[in-house]
Amino acid sequence: MKSSLLQEQCKALKLGSVSRIHTQIAFENREQFLTDLFAEELKIREENRNRRRLKRAGFPQTKTLEEFSWENIVLPPQTTREHLTELSFIDAKESLICMGGVGTGKTHLVIALGLKAALSGKEVRFFQTVDLANRLLEKNAKGTLGSFTRGLESCDLLIVDELGFLPLHRHAAELLFQVIANCYERRSVAITTNLEFGQWNTVINDNRLTAALIDRLVHHGHVLAFTGESYRLRNALSQLNAPRESDGMGP
Questions:
Q1: Mapping DSSP to helix (H, G, I), strand (E, B) and coil, where does residue 189 land?
Q2: How confident is the model over 106-160, as pLDDT tens digits?
Q3: Domain containing 13: what range?
C-alpha cells in the first residue's frame, strides 16, 4: 500500500526513479539521504536525455575522438584541433567541410564530434546526403516538408555525409540547398565529401546553386583535407598479412 502511494506521489512530482531506487540509497541522516537520492535521480534523468538525443541524432555507428587518428588530416592555419574537439565551432555556428578519399576518416571524425556534442547536451542530426535528399523530396510530395525542416532547425549541428557519391535530382538539390542555406550563421553544418569544390557541380547539377552553397559553407567554415590511404583498406590488408596461428595440422 505504501509502495503504491509512493509511486503515485513520485509520478505526480515527476520523480520517476525515486520510488524504484530509494531502497538502494544508504541512510546516514535525512539530509544525506535526500541529497544522494536526488543526485541519483538527476543522473538517471541525464542518462535518459542522452539516450533520446543519440536516438534523434541517427548516427549509423558509434565513433569516438579517442579512436580517431589525426595523422591523415591537414588543418587550415586558422583551425586548431582544440577548436574542433572542444566543440567551439558549434558554439560559433561554423561549418566543417571534410574533403578526402574514401576511407580516410572523414565520417569517423564528424560522427565522433557529433557524439560528443550530443552527450554535451547539443542537438545533432546525421544524414547521408542521398538519404536526406530523398527524405526532402518525400516530405515535399506529402506536404509535410515544413514540419520536417523545422525539426532540423532545432539542431545545433547538422551532419551531411558522403556528398558526391551519387548525383542528385535537380529538385532534391534545390531542397538540400535550402536546408543548408538556412543553417548559415544559425547552426553548424558538417559535410563530408570525396570531391573538390570544382567537382561539386557534378552532384548538384546547377552552377548557381553550387557556387552559392560553397560560398555559405566556406564563409564561416573550416576546410579539412584528409590524405593518405583508406583506413579500412589498410586494416583489411594488415589482417590479411597477419601471421596465422597454426591449427596443429601442419602446412
A1: strand
A2: 999 999 999 999 999 999 999 999 999 999 999 999 999 999 999 999 999 999 9
A3: 2-56
